[in-house]
Design brief:
This protein is α/β, with parallel strands linked by helices. The chain folds into three domains: 128 residues, Rossmann fold (3-Layer(aba) Sandwich), CATH 3.40.50; 54 residues; 146 residues, Heat Shock Protein 90. It has ten helices and twelve strands. The strands form two sheets. Strands 6, 7, 8, 9, 10, 11 and 12 form a seven-stranded mixed β-sheet that branches. The chain has a five-stranded parallel β-sheet with strand order 2-1-3-4-5, sandwiched between helices. Helix 2 runs parallel beside helix 3. The two termini are 25 Å apart. The relative contact order is 0.08. The structure holds adenosine-5'-diphosphate. Adenosine-5'-diphosphate binds next to helix 9 and helix 10.
Length: 357
Protein backbone atom coordinates (compact mmCIF):
# COMPACT_ATOMS: atom_id res chain seq x y z
CA UNK A 1 0.00 0.00 0.00
CA UNK A 2 1.23 3.47 -0.85
CA UNK A 3 2.44 5.91 1.82
CA UNK A 4 1.38 8.90 -0.35
CA UNK A 5 -1.94 10.62 0.33
CA UNK A 6 -4.91 8.51 -0.71
CA UNK A 7 -7.46 10.10 -3.01
CA UNK A 8 -10.97 9.16 -1.90
CA UNK A 9 -14.38 9.99 -3.33
CA UNK A 10 -17.48 10.01 -1.12
CA UNK A 11 -20.74 9.91 -3.10
CA UNK A 12 -23.77 10.57 -0.88
CA UNK A 13 -26.65 13.04 -1.28
CA UNK A 14 -27.13 13.45 2.49
CA UNK A 15 -25.02 16.32 3.93
CA UNK A 16 -25.03 14.84 7.42
CA UNK A 17 -23.96 11.36 6.23
CA UNK A 18 -21.18 12.81 4.10
CA UNK A 19 -19.86 14.89 7.00
CA UNK A 20 -20.05 11.87 9.32
CA UNK A 21 -18.12 9.67 6.89
CA UNK A 22 -15.53 12.39 6.32
CA UNK A 23 -15.05 12.76 10.13
CA UNK A 24 -14.61 9.01 10.58
CA UNK A 25 -12.07 8.78 7.77
CA UNK A 26 -10.14 11.76 9.09
CA UNK A 27 -10.21 10.24 12.57
CA UNK A 28 -9.06 6.76 11.53
CA UNK A 29 -5.52 7.88 10.74
CA UNK A 30 -5.51 7.37 6.96
CA UNK A 31 -3.67 10.15 5.19
CA UNK A 32 -6.07 11.21 2.44
CA UNK A 33 -7.66 13.87 0.29
CA UNK A 34 -11.43 13.55 0.07
CA UNK A 35 -13.70 14.77 -2.75
CA UNK A 36 -17.47 14.64 -2.57
CA UNK A 37 -20.24 13.94 -5.07
CA UNK A 38 -23.94 14.57 -4.39
CA UNK A 39 -25.43 12.24 -7.02
CA UNK A 40 -24.37 9.48 -9.41
CA UNK A 41 -23.76 11.78 -12.37
CA UNK A 42 -21.40 13.88 -10.22
CA UNK A 43 -19.64 10.72 -8.98
CA UNK A 44 -19.11 9.50 -12.56
CA UNK A 45 -17.83 12.91 -13.66
CA UNK A 46 -15.45 13.07 -10.68
CA UNK A 47 -13.99 9.64 -11.58
CA UNK A 48 -13.43 10.85 -15.14
CA UNK A 49 -11.67 13.98 -13.92
CA UNK A 50 -9.43 12.39 -11.26
CA UNK A 51 -7.75 9.07 -10.55
CA UNK A 52 -9.12 7.95 -7.16
CA UNK A 53 -7.68 5.19 -4.99
CA UNK A 54 -11.13 4.31 -3.65
CA UNK A 55 -14.76 5.46 -4.04
CA UNK A 56 -17.33 5.13 -1.25
CA UNK A 57 -20.84 5.21 -2.69
CA UNK A 58 -24.14 5.32 -0.83
CA UNK A 59 -26.76 2.88 -2.09
CA UNK A 60 -29.60 5.40 -2.00
CA UNK A 61 -28.71 8.18 -4.39
CA UNK A 62 -30.56 10.61 -6.67
CA UNK A 63 -30.15 9.60 -10.32
CA UNK A 64 -30.47 5.85 -9.65
CA UNK A 65 -29.35 3.48 -6.91
CA UNK A 66 -25.70 2.94 -6.05
CA UNK A 67 -25.65 -0.40 -7.91
CA UNK A 68 -26.17 1.48 -11.16
CA UNK A 69 -23.25 3.69 -10.15
CA UNK A 70 -21.01 0.67 -9.54
CA UNK A 71 -21.75 -0.70 -13.03
CA UNK A 72 -21.19 2.67 -14.74
CA UNK A 73 -17.96 3.47 -12.87
CA UNK A 74 -16.49 -0.06 -13.12
CA UNK A 75 -17.13 -0.03 -16.85
CA UNK A 76 -14.88 3.01 -17.25
CA UNK A 77 -12.48 2.32 -14.34
CA UNK A 78 -12.33 -1.46 -13.84
CA UNK A 79 -9.53 -1.29 -11.28
CA UNK A 80 -11.03 1.40 -9.02
CA UNK A 81 -12.14 -0.21 -5.74
CA UNK A 82 -15.68 0.81 -4.75
CA UNK A 83 -17.14 0.44 -1.27
CA UNK A 84 -20.94 0.53 -1.04
CA UNK A 85 -22.62 2.04 2.02
CA UNK A 86 -25.92 0.28 2.67
CA UNK A 87 -28.82 0.84 5.07
CA UNK A 88 -30.02 -1.45 7.84
CA UNK A 89 -31.13 -4.87 6.53
CA UNK A 90 -29.77 -4.34 3.01
CA UNK A 91 -27.82 -7.63 2.90
CA UNK A 92 -29.28 -8.59 -0.48
CA UNK A 93 -28.21 -5.27 -1.94
CA UNK A 94 -24.76 -5.71 -0.42
CA UNK A 95 -24.34 -9.13 -2.04
CA UNK A 96 -25.59 -7.71 -5.36
CA UNK A 97 -23.00 -4.92 -5.05
CA UNK A 98 -20.19 -7.45 -4.55
CA UNK A 99 -21.41 -9.45 -7.57
CA UNK A 100 -21.26 -6.28 -9.65
CA UNK A 101 -17.65 -5.74 -8.67
CA UNK A 102 -17.77 -3.67 -5.46
CA UNK A 103 -14.70 -4.38 -3.33
CA UNK A 104 -16.76 -4.36 -0.13
CA UNK A 105 -19.84 -2.93 1.58
CA UNK A 106 -20.41 -1.30 4.93
CA UNK A 107 -23.81 -0.97 6.68
CA UNK A 108 -24.43 2.61 7.88
CA UNK A 109 -25.28 1.30 11.36
CA UNK A 110 -21.79 -0.18 11.75
CA UNK A 111 -19.80 2.84 10.59
CA UNK A 112 -16.95 3.53 12.98
CA UNK A 113 -13.40 4.81 12.57
CA UNK A 114 -11.89 1.32 12.96
CA UNK A 115 -14.37 -0.32 10.62
CA UNK A 116 -14.06 2.22 7.81
CA UNK A 117 -10.24 2.09 8.03
CA UNK A 118 -10.37 -1.71 7.77
CA UNK A 119 -12.77 -1.63 4.80
CA UNK A 120 -10.74 0.98 2.88
CA UNK A 121 -7.44 -0.83 3.50
CA UNK A 122 -8.81 -4.19 2.41
CA UNK A 123 -10.41 -2.60 -0.71
CA UNK A 124 -7.00 -1.12 -1.62
CA UNK A 125 -5.29 -4.48 -1.09
CA UNK A 126 -7.87 -6.22 -3.32
CA UNK A 127 -7.40 -3.57 -6.01
CA UNK A 128 -3.62 -4.05 -5.87
CA UNK A 129 -4.00 -7.82 -6.30
CA UNK A 130 -6.44 -7.28 -9.16
CA UNK A 131 -3.91 -4.98 -10.83
CA UNK A 132 -1.15 -7.60 -10.48
CA UNK A 133 -3.39 -10.33 -11.93
CA UNK A 134 -4.42 -8.06 -14.84
CA UNK A 135 -0.77 -7.22 -15.59
CA UNK A 136 0.19 -10.92 -15.48
CA UNK A 137 -2.71 -11.90 -17.73
CA UNK A 138 -1.76 -9.23 -20.26
CA UNK A 139 1.87 -10.35 -20.19
CA UNK A 140 0.81 -13.98 -20.65
CA UNK A 141 -1.35 -13.05 -23.64
CA UNK A 142 1.49 -11.06 -25.21
CA UNK A 143 3.89 -13.88 -24.45
CA UNK A 144 1.64 -16.58 -25.96
CA UNK A 145 1.10 -14.51 -29.08
CA UNK A 146 4.80 -13.88 -29.76
CA UNK A 147 5.76 -17.39 -28.72
CA UNK A 148 3.41 -18.93 -31.27
CA UNK A 149 5.00 -16.72 -33.93
CA UNK A 150 8.60 -17.42 -32.86
CA UNK A 151 8.12 -21.18 -32.76
CA UNK A 152 6.23 -21.28 -36.06
CA UNK A 153 9.06 -19.55 -37.93
CA UNK A 154 11.69 -22.33 -37.43
CA UNK A 155 9.06 -25.05 -37.95
CA UNK A 156 8.15 -23.57 -41.37
CA UNK A 157 11.83 -23.27 -42.18
CA UNK A 158 12.46 -26.92 -41.28
CA UNK A 159 9.57 -27.97 -43.56
CA UNK A 160 10.99 -26.00 -46.51
CA UNK A 161 14.50 -27.31 -45.88
CA UNK A 162 13.25 -30.93 -45.89
CA UNK A 163 11.62 -30.23 -49.28
CA UNK A 164 14.91 -28.76 -50.56
CA UNK A 165 16.82 -31.79 -49.25
CA UNK A 166 14.41 -34.15 -51.06
CA UNK A 167 15.03 -32.20 -54.28
CA UNK A 168 18.81 -32.28 -53.71
CA UNK A 169 18.63 -36.07 -53.19
CA UNK A 170 16.66 -36.55 -56.41
CA UNK A 171 19.13 -34.38 -58.32
CA UNK A 172 22.12 -36.02 -56.62
CA UNK A 173 23.45 -32.52 -55.74
CA UNK A 174 25.68 -33.47 -52.79
CA UNK A 175 27.12 -30.03 -52.19
CA UNK A 176 23.70 -28.35 -51.99
CA UNK A 177 22.51 -31.28 -49.88
CA UNK A 178 25.26 -30.61 -47.32
CA UNK A 179 24.44 -26.87 -47.23
CA UNK A 180 20.75 -27.54 -46.63
CA UNK A 181 21.52 -30.19 -44.01
CA UNK A 182 23.69 -27.65 -42.12
CA UNK A 183 20.89 -25.08 -42.34
CA UNK A 184 18.44 -27.66 -41.02
CA UNK A 185 20.71 -28.46 -38.07
CA UNK A 186 21.24 -24.75 -37.32
CA UNK A 187 17.48 -24.13 -37.38
CA UNK A 188 16.83 -27.11 -35.08
CA UNK A 189 19.54 -25.81 -32.72
CA UNK A 190 17.93 -22.36 -32.66
CA UNK A 191 14.59 -23.93 -31.83
CA UNK A 192 16.20 -25.94 -29.04
CA UNK A 193 17.83 -22.74 -27.70
CA UNK A 194 14.47 -20.99 -27.74
CA UNK A 195 12.80 -23.85 -25.85
CA UNK A 196 15.63 -23.97 -23.27
CA UNK A 197 15.41 -20.21 -22.78
CA UNK A 198 11.64 -20.40 -22.44
CA UNK A 199 12.10 -23.05 -19.80
CA UNK A 200 14.38 -20.78 -17.76
CA UNK A 201 11.97 -17.86 -18.29
CA UNK A 202 9.13 -19.88 -16.77
CA UNK A 203 11.41 -21.18 -13.97
CA UNK A 204 11.92 -17.59 -12.84
CA UNK A 205 8.17 -17.46 -12.00
CA UNK A 206 8.65 -19.86 -9.10
CA UNK A 207 9.28 -18.58 -5.54
CA UNK A 208 13.00 -18.37 -4.90
CA UNK A 209 15.17 -19.32 -1.96
CA UNK A 210 17.55 -16.56 -0.90
CA UNK A 211 20.53 -16.64 1.43
CA UNK A 212 23.62 -14.53 2.00
CA UNK A 213 25.84 -15.17 -1.02
CA UNK A 214 28.97 -13.72 -2.49
CA UNK A 215 28.42 -11.94 -5.81
CA UNK A 216 32.01 -12.91 -6.67
CA UNK A 217 30.81 -16.54 -6.63
CA UNK A 218 28.00 -15.74 -9.09
CA UNK A 219 30.47 -13.98 -11.42
CA UNK A 220 32.91 -16.93 -11.20
CA UNK A 221 30.14 -19.32 -12.27
CA UNK A 222 29.19 -17.02 -15.14
CA UNK A 223 32.79 -16.70 -16.37
CA UNK A 224 33.33 -20.43 -16.26
CA UNK A 225 30.15 -21.02 -18.31
CA UNK A 226 31.21 -18.38 -20.86
CA UNK A 227 34.92 -19.33 -20.92
CA UNK A 228 34.98 -20.69 -24.49
CA UNK A 229 33.00 -17.72 -25.85
CA UNK A 230 35.27 -15.23 -24.05
CA UNK A 231 38.35 -16.85 -25.53
CA UNK A 232 36.82 -17.25 -29.03
CA UNK A 233 36.00 -13.54 -29.16
CA UNK A 234 39.31 -12.44 -27.63
CA UNK A 235 37.33 -10.60 -24.97
CA UNK A 236 38.45 -9.14 -21.66
CA UNK A 237 36.05 -9.46 -18.75
CA UNK A 238 37.22 -7.69 -15.56
CA UNK A 239 35.52 -7.62 -12.22
CA UNK A 240 36.01 -5.29 -9.23
CA UNK A 241 35.64 -6.85 -5.75
CA UNK A 242 31.92 -7.40 -5.14
CA UNK A 243 29.97 -7.36 -1.86
CA UNK A 244 27.83 -10.02 -0.20
CA UNK A 245 24.11 -9.81 -0.99
CA UNK A 246 20.90 -11.63 -0.14
CA UNK A 247 20.09 -13.66 -3.22
CA UNK A 248 19.87 -16.93 -5.06
CA UNK A 249 23.24 -18.04 -6.37
CA UNK A 250 22.06 -19.96 -9.42
CA UNK A 251 19.68 -17.19 -10.59
CA UNK A 252 22.29 -14.47 -10.06
CA UNK A 253 24.83 -16.56 -11.99
CA UNK A 254 22.34 -16.72 -14.86
CA UNK A 255 21.74 -12.96 -14.57
CA UNK A 256 25.48 -12.21 -14.96
CA UNK A 257 25.73 -14.77 -17.74
CA UNK A 258 22.97 -13.08 -19.77
CA UNK A 259 24.40 -9.57 -19.27
CA UNK A 260 28.05 -10.50 -19.86
CA UNK A 261 26.98 -12.74 -22.79
CA UNK A 262 25.20 -9.76 -24.38
CA UNK A 263 28.28 -7.59 -23.79
CA UNK A 264 30.28 -10.13 -25.81
CA UNK A 265 27.62 -10.59 -28.48
CA UNK A 266 26.66 -6.94 -29.19
CA UNK A 267 30.25 -5.76 -29.50
CA UNK A 268 30.30 -4.51 -33.11
CA UNK A 269 33.80 -4.77 -34.48
CA UNK A 270 35.61 -3.87 -31.23
CA UNK A 271 37.21 -6.61 -29.20
CA UNK A 272 34.78 -6.89 -26.33
CA UNK A 273 35.64 -5.39 -22.95
CA UNK A 274 33.20 -6.02 -20.15
CA UNK A 275 33.56 -4.59 -16.64
CA UNK A 276 31.56 -5.70 -13.62
CA UNK A 277 31.49 -3.44 -10.56
CA UNK A 278 29.22 -2.68 -7.60
CA UNK A 279 28.42 0.15 -5.23
CA UNK A 280 26.87 -0.31 -1.79
CA UNK A 281 24.45 2.31 -0.53
CA UNK A 282 22.92 1.40 2.85
CA UNK A 283 20.59 -1.57 2.42
CA UNK A 284 20.99 -1.57 -1.35
CA UNK A 285 23.76 -2.73 -3.68
CA UNK A 286 23.85 -1.45 -7.28
CA UNK A 287 25.71 -3.73 -9.68
CA UNK A 288 26.89 -2.46 -13.08
CA UNK A 289 27.87 -4.50 -16.13
CA UNK A 290 29.33 -2.20 -18.76
CA UNK A 291 30.60 -2.97 -22.26
CA UNK A 292 32.29 -1.17 -25.15
CA UNK A 293 29.81 -2.50 -27.71
CA UNK A 294 27.30 -1.03 -30.12
CA UNK A 295 25.13 0.51 -27.37
CA UNK A 296 21.34 0.70 -27.10
CA UNK A 297 19.50 3.71 -28.60
CA UNK A 298 17.91 5.63 -25.66
CA UNK A 299 14.29 5.26 -26.92
CA UNK A 300 14.73 1.46 -26.83
CA UNK A 301 16.24 1.23 -23.36
CA UNK A 302 12.99 0.10 -21.73
CA UNK A 303 11.53 -2.00 -24.54
CA UNK A 304 14.52 -4.39 -24.62
CA UNK A 305 13.48 -5.78 -21.20
CA UNK A 306 10.14 -7.00 -22.63
CA UNK A 307 10.00 -10.64 -23.81
CA UNK A 308 10.90 -11.13 -27.49
CA UNK A 309 11.90 -7.52 -28.11
CA UNK A 310 15.04 -7.48 -30.27
CA UNK A 311 16.75 -4.60 -32.00
CA UNK A 312 18.51 -6.91 -34.46
CA UNK A 313 17.32 -9.30 -37.10
CA UNK A 314 18.16 -13.00 -36.64
CA UNK A 315 20.38 -12.89 -39.75
CA UNK A 316 22.53 -10.10 -38.20
CA UNK A 317 22.96 -11.39 -34.63
CA UNK A 318 21.29 -14.54 -33.34
CA UNK A 319 19.15 -14.47 -30.22
CA UNK A 320 15.80 -15.34 -28.68
CA UNK A 321 14.88 -11.89 -27.35
CA UNK A 322 14.34 -13.40 -23.89
CA UNK A 323 17.73 -12.81 -22.22
CA UNK A 324 16.96 -9.40 -20.75
CA UNK A 325 13.34 -10.35 -19.93
CA UNK A 326 14.82 -13.18 -17.83
CA UNK A 327 17.25 -10.70 -16.22
CA UNK A 328 14.33 -8.42 -15.30
CA UNK A 329 12.35 -11.32 -13.81
CA UNK A 330 15.37 -12.46 -11.76
CA UNK A 331 16.06 -8.95 -10.43
CA UNK A 332 12.38 -8.31 -9.62
CA UNK A 333 12.18 -11.69 -7.85
CA UNK A 334 14.99 -10.35 -5.65
CA UNK A 335 13.03 -7.13 -4.99
CA UNK A 336 15.33 -5.00 -7.18
CA UNK A 337 15.23 -2.91 -10.37
CA UNK A 338 17.19 -3.19 -13.61
CA UNK A 339 17.79 -0.59 -16.29
CA UNK A 340 20.11 0.30 -19.14
CA UNK A 341 22.21 3.45 -19.61
CA UNK A 342 24.52 4.67 -22.34
CA UNK A 343 28.23 4.40 -21.45
CA UNK A 344 29.69 7.88 -21.96
CA UNK A 345 32.65 6.54 -23.95
CA UNK A 346 30.41 4.29 -26.11
CA UNK A 347 28.68 0.99 -25.36
CA UNK A 348 26.11 0.30 -22.66
CA UNK A 349 25.87 -0.09 -18.91
CA UNK A 350 23.29 -2.46 -17.44
CA UNK A 351 22.64 -1.72 -13.77
CA UNK A 352 20.56 -3.62 -11.24
CA UNK A 353 19.90 -3.34 -7.52
CA UNK A 354 19.91 -6.12 -4.91
CA UNK A 355 19.46 -6.24 -1.15
CA UNK A 356 22.75 -6.01 0.75
CA UNK A 357 23.54 -8.92 3.06
P1 LIG B 1 18.73 -11.50 -27.45
O1 LIG B 1 20.16 -11.14 -27.18
O2 LIG B 1 18.47 -12.95 -27.41
O3 LIG B 1 18.21 -10.84 -28.69
P2 LIG B 1 18.02 -9.98 -25.08
O4 LIG B 1 16.70 -9.95 -24.38
O5 LIG B 1 19.20 -10.40 -24.30
O6 LIG B 1 17.78 -10.92 -26.31
O7 LIG B 1 18.28 -8.55 -25.67
C1 LIG B 1 17.26 -7.84 -26.34
C2 LIG B 1 17.86 -6.88 -27.34
O8 LIG B 1 18.55 -5.83 -26.64
C3 LIG B 1 18.92 -7.50 -28.22
O9 LIG B 1 18.33 -8.09 -29.36
C4 LIG B 1 19.81 -6.33 -28.56
O10 LIG B 1 19.26 -5.65 -29.65
C5 LIG B 1 19.73 -5.43 -27.34
N1 LIG B 1 20.88 -5.60 -26.44
C6 LIG B 1 20.95 -6.39 -25.35
N2 LIG B 1 22.13 -6.27 -24.73
C7 LIG B 1 22.84 -5.38 -25.44
C8 LIG B 1 24.16 -4.82 -25.30
N3 LIG B 1 24.99 -5.16 -24.30
N4 LIG B 1 24.56 -3.89 -26.23
C9 LIG B 1 23.73 -3.53 -27.23
N5 LIG B 1 22.49 -4.02 -27.42
C10 LIG B 1 22.04 -4.93 -26.53
Amino acid sequence: MTSAKLRLLIADDDDGDRRHLRRLIRGCGLLCEIDEALDLAEAEAACEARAYDCAIIDYRMPGGNGLKGIVAIRERHPLLPIVMVTGQGDELIASEAIKLGAADYVPKSQLSEGYIAHVIKSALRKAELERIVTDQREELERFGHVLAHDLKTPIHQIRYLVEFIERDLEEGNREQLRTNRDRLLATARRMEDLINTLQSYSMTEKPIEVSVISLDGAVEGCLSNLASEISARGATVSCDPLPLVRGNLSLLTQLFQNLVGNGLKYCGSASPEVLISAQSDGPEVTVSVSDNGIGVPPPEMQRIFQPFQRLHRQAEIEGTGLGLAICRKIVERHGGRIWCEARPSGGSIFRFTLNAA
